[in-house]
Q: What sequence folds into this?
């Protein structure tokens, strides 16, 4: 009789406690897994954000360097193409004709005493005015380049000194590229008179209006980058035109215009996606934590197993009835 009572009590305990313990173990495992997923999500978010920020920074730097390097390449290309190097800072041309004549007479430049004596001060002055503009159009040049201009003006006569001086009334370096695109005819006249295609000084192939506009469109974002990052646009716009007239008209490159904005957008989208993922995981964690705190430990989904408790209670009642009847007998 005692054995039967003990068995009945053990059966009741197993039915009431066993399922809930099993469900608690599964829920604890689920919560642990969620915590691991949460940590992994946070780690991935941090890595993705850092990677995206680094990428945007690198693109911004590369674009700035690219604009500067293209400008240097233009200058180097003109030097190679014309054989006229940029002057050192201490080699700037003096603006006084008498001092220029004295400097040329030292024999350091490719001009003989006879040739120098053949030039009047007025000729030297006219050449100096043109040469000063050339330095603005390209880059600073020394007296060696000035001698070459004298030869083109008065020896070879490949540049008409009167037409060139008249063309100086138009100054492309004083205009924005947007303004130049609206004055293409004046720019054409300027180039043809100062840098004709047959010049023995600096020749520029005659371009169509469409070709000039294409070059200006291409250079515009590069100029904006240089002015923003370097505070100057170098070399002068005519140097860019001369170089691209020689090596080919460039294709438009929109990636130089707003590269950082594009990558910043991608970074923002990535961050938003990571934030959404984090919020969803955090919600799951909060829900599971609430279930543990309130004692609701379902085995599957959110459906508690009340029927097992009911079966246990029914067994207790049956056992109690059996004990009562036997005791009455």
A:
């Amino acid at each position: 009789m005692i054995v039967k009572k003990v068995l009945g009590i053990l059966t009741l305990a197993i039915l009431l406690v066993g399922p809930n313990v099993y469900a608690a173990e599964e829920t604890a495992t689920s919560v642990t897994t969620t915590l691991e997923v949460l940590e992994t999500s946070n780690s991935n978010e941090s890595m993705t954000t850092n990677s995206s920020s680094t990428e945007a920074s690198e693109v911004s730097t590369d674009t700035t360097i690219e604009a500067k390097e293209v400008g240097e390449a233009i200058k180097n290309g003109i030097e190679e193409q014309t054989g006229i190097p940029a002057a050192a800072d201490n080699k700037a041309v003096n603006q006084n004709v008498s001092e220029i004549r004295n400097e040329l007479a030292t024999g350091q430049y490719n001009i003989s005493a006879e040739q120098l004596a053949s030039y009047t001060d007025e000729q030297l002055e006219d050449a100096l005015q043109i040469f000063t503009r050339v330095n603005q159009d390209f880059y600073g040049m020394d007296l060696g380049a000035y001698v070459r201009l004298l030869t083109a003006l008065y020896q070879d006569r490949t540049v008409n000194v009167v037409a060139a001086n008249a063309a100086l009334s138009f100054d492309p370096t004083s205009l924005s590229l947007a303004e130049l695109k609206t004055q293409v005819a004046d720019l054409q006249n300027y180039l043809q008179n100062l840098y004709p295609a047959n010049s023995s000084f600096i020749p520029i192939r005659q371009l169509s209006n469409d070709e000039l506009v294409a070059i200006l469109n291409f250079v515009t974002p590069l100029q904006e980058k240089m002015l923003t990052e370097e505070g100057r646009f170098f070399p002068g716009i005519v140097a860019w035109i001369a170089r691209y007239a020689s090596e080919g008209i460039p294709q438009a490159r929109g990636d130089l215009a707003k590269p950082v904005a594009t990558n910043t957008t991608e970074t923002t989208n990535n961050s938003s996606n990571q934030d959404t993922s984090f919020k969803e995981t955090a919600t799951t964690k909060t829900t599971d934590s609430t279930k543990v705190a309130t004692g609701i430990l379902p085995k599957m989904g959110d459906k508690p197993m009340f029927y097992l408790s009911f079966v246990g209670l029914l067994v207790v009642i049956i056992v109690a009835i059996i004990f009562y009847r036997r005791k009455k007998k």
Notes: Residues 67-247 form one domain. Residues 24 and 295 are 9 Å apart (CA to CA). The chain has a mean pLDDT of 73.
